[in-house]
Amino acid sequence: MVEEKNNTADRELILNRTVHAPISLVWEVWTNPNHLKNWWGPDGFSNTITEMNVSPNGHFDLIMHGPDGTDYKNHSIYREVIRHKKIVYEHISGPRFIATIEFTPKGDQTDLRWHMLFESKEQFIQVVKTFKADEGLKQNIEKLIGYLEVHKEFCIERIFKAPIEKVFDAFASAEALTRWWGPVGHALSVKTFEFKPGGKFIFAMEGYDACGLFEYTVIDRPHTIQYISSFSDEKGNKCKAPFPIDFPMDILNTLSFTEKNGVTTLRLQGHPIAATSSQNETYQSMQDGMQSGFGGTFDQLDRYLDSHQ
Known about the structure:
The chain is α+β, with helices and mostly antiparallel strands. Helix content is 28%, strand content 39%. The protein is built from eight helices and 15 strands. Strands 8, 9, 10, 11, 12, 13, 14 and 15 form an eight-stranded antiparallel sheet that branches. A seven-stranded antiparallel sheet has the order 1-7-6-5-4-3-2.
């Protein structure tokens, strides 16, 4: 293991950057191998990931394929993982170092601090001189920024003239959701409603063969609701989208509620989980239509809130 010393300035690399993506998306591309393999490493490198268990003592094994055809095997072990805050891993295969990546959410942006601590000053000099690790780290984060730019998440924001508790309650009640949720003109019927972390909301919409499925992951009343949305049968068995396009199977959605002077701002953010390149492209291409669709849904919510003063 890399030995910690009081003064490590002569054997460490540090890079600080602000990326224009929310913490939920940044964390996803750092912890999902289907994302990470597409941006990891310096320019010209591609990756094959054989194991990636992002948890303390979990293994991170990948082969980096150099532009000249040379393969570089990398074996690391995660030492610390704090969701949306920090990832620490120890690179076991040479050169040995400890990498610490810290995440600080700043609204729609995320501050990153990427720190690499090498075993010795001599090793650090060799790695920088031979492998140009300093330049490689800069290229790596630029690839990450470019990848995030292509995989922008969906975001829509609306203001409601109602207190935050009332707006939150419109999402927390099955009866309320039947009054306003879904595309305009498509009646909704609830099959299952378990409003709790780990719970499911299964609903049928008039005109659709498949049911909608929400799997709640975070409920922080009255500020946050996070859920994974997909399509399923009435029992919650997942299926492909009921339309002839290659749509992602799972979307991670975050609803954020803030209030000022009795007026509530609602923000919905969403991005695919473990999607293929084709599915990501479809999701990006549909965002204008999604703006219109959710706009109509939130118009219905506005009328619902107004009628329940």
